[in-house]
């Protein structure tokens, strides 16, 4: 990776151009420019995700033979194992520390939506939550994440760079990202449409799936949420309520247990706190657990670890396969890259992968937002609807659109 001089560049984001890869975290900011090579896609199969690490290794070897000194792969992996990932080796990668991450006060944005569509409509979404609750009460599932989408058309073309700046400014402890998914088939209402223009996956996720540095891994599952309040006393009450909620603590424990179980085969030791802590974004409180592990084999890649975890119960449910099938049955749209993972991996396996939530797909003046809520025994459909509305707020605020 090339390093960016602190004296010359205030923020890598200032250099962003539509189509660049961008990922900003509390540790570093990475931007990939140009396309040196594309990770080869494979024939569509039910579980093509499992061949992705091998295809990435092949891409690394080919890039080095072609003269790339230090290849790094960047991109996005979809929710559905049978759909194609969008992975490239950029021509140039720029990296900066958090000391030069902040690009200052962003410009105000006020997009004017001229068409708005919920998929599904709120009443239908709550019926979907009840379908999930029926599967839980019958013993088929312990948890399911039921999601919805929000489509906008705006009068003007959407300025992705300015939205990214606003997301980063208000998301300093999280992960702000943009990935070009232009040549991937866009899924709308379970119909496949091939897009022509630039289509960008953009978002500000609070959740790290996994990172790997040499022989150390770190995972930070989130599950259990409350919307923030503008009133400080009410906001604190909601935070304390979340910490004491049996429903949310159970939902969180399901996710942590799965993460621990999935990572254990790779680790010679793990440190998993018994009690979750709280983290906050501008829109939400979340229960959080920080998990550290020492790998048995230092060459295990961050991508392999991410695939072993994907999708966690935080975005899918439990048991995973049954929850995924129920999602396909209940949700009237394909998730695409929502609830997938975004990130990077270098030739030594080091890297970080982010859970693709609080996100949207943008193309010219068309944007689709996504939000989901974890449903367990005791969940109330109206509350899950409110939670998804609060999660839309991250992207709506970035676009200067009043909450719908």
From TrEMBL:
Enzyme category, top tier: isomerase
Record key words, sorted: Isomerase
Domain annotation Chorismate-utilising enzyme C-terminal: ranges: 123-391
Catalysis: reaction(s): chorismate = isochorismate
EC assignment: 5.4.4.2
Keyword Isomerase part of the UniProt annotation: yes
UniProt entry tagged with the keyword Isomerase: yes
A Pfam family that the UniProt record links to this protein: Chorismate_bind
InterPro entries documented for this protein: ADC_synthase, Anth_synth_I-like, Chorismate_C, IsoChor_synthase
Family: Belongs to the isochorismate synthase family.
Protein name (record): isochorismate synthase
